[in-house]
Amino acid sequence: MRKRWFFLDRIQSQNWLIAALLGVGMLSGNARAQPVSPDSVRRALLWGSHYAAHTLLSPEGSSRCDYDLVSAQWEAYEPAWHTGQVIWGILEAARATGDTSTLSAARRAGEWWKTLEIRDHPFLKGYFNAIHGAEVGNLINFTTLADGAPGLFALTRATGDASYAEVATRAGHWAMEHLYIPKAGLMYDLIDPATGEILKDKSPHFPQNKTLSLTNVARPNTEGFLFADMYRHTGNSRYLQFFLTQCDTLLRYQWPNGLWMDFHPNKADVGRIHPRFNLWYAESLLVAYELTRDEKYRLAALRTARAVKPWMTREGVIYYTNYTDGRRETGSICGSAVAFAGLVWLKCRQTGETDFDEHIHRAARWLVQNQLPPHHPDPNLRGAFLETWQKHHHSRTHLFVRDIATAFALRFLAAYLSVFP
User: Fold this and answer.
1) Is there a contact between 240 and 227 (Cβ–Cβ < 8 Å)?
2) For a 10 Å CB count at each end of the chain, is N or C smaller?
3) Above 80 in pLDDT, residue 32?
4) How confident is the model at residue 15 (pLDDT cuts 50, 70, 90)?
5) Dihedral Cα 298, 152, 253, 291, nearest 10 deg
6) In Å, what is the CA distance from 306 to each residue of 225, 277, 281?
7) Is 52 exposed, middle or buried (CB count within 10 Å of its CB: 0-12, 13-18, 19+)?
8) Given a cut of 70, is residue 364 above it in pLDDT?
């Protein structure tokens, strides 16, 4: 029987509560990163993909998103991009394992995604009702569209049904025409779906009394490399040029530390770093390198990939909150960041870099050994990959195991199995 849990070092007191809730034993230990058994990776992919298909996705097809261990309730959070990532994870797992029994669930999710296309608004027709939800409320967030779109293009490639990619392409075309700021090379983030207003001087991400700069309301927005996928789907070179222009903007705004601290959800004033945001940008730069073989994109992505390495503990944990001075807050474990970092490191390795192997294996081992088992007493968690996102709202504490931990883990482990078969 395989060892079920990977023991963490320097566990803080709050993590003992997490261990008790999940039924996990957490003791100190030190394991050297080694390649993970292919059988263990395949088993993790099968457990995780069936969990994604049969538990994460609702009967309607949308992802249930975040599961709160305290209340035992699901809470929606940017469902369009979460659903798109779940689709992508299912497809990658099916490719890697040969188990195609989950593909009908992926198609169901794609059909739900298509229903969000805006068809009758006089200004927004063709765009996509990618509501953020949670603290942002009922505003359309461009990156909610862009982050979810790769799964739709992947679904079109897997099924031959062009309708999934075409919905994403129409929405991206609308955004290119209406949200882009040519002089700055940025795109506005938020739109009110009721009025069609593009938020240019206000944002729920910032206090109402704060005077906002352009970089508070607009970003390079290359997450999900939407316009690269639009180009690959249509062959329209205009989309490729737009994507490369976006990536050139990334190069201008990248800090010497390899990150993009000018843009939320990073917070330059306190040096706080979001665990996935910078990885999205690095991944898009690697796509630009694939399309052009221009070294400037690869080198910029490498700066980010190397900047992320110190965030990982020797056991393979990445926490939600890290700082530019090297500090970290250890209250929330970010399994999705472990998987996403592993994926970006793996892609950097495939460009010829050799300094990522230990961290790649460390990420794979932590994910496999901390996956919640298929006989977990809570049926909402059977086969999930671990994430422990703590949030405090009024007098309540929330402790979330997030769907994106599974979505990113499936993508990474499928790629890992391809490289280390």
Assistant:
1) yes
2) N
3) no
4) low
5) 30
6) 21, 15, 14
7) buried
8) yes
Which residue has tokens 């990658």? 92
Q: Please compute, for residue 240, the number of CA atoms within 13 A of its CA located in the half-sphere on the CB side.
A: 13
Q: What are phi and psi of 191, to 5 degrees?
A: -140, 140
The fraction of the chain above a pLDDT of 90, given in percent, is 86
Reference 390, options 77, 101, 14, 121; nearest CA is 14
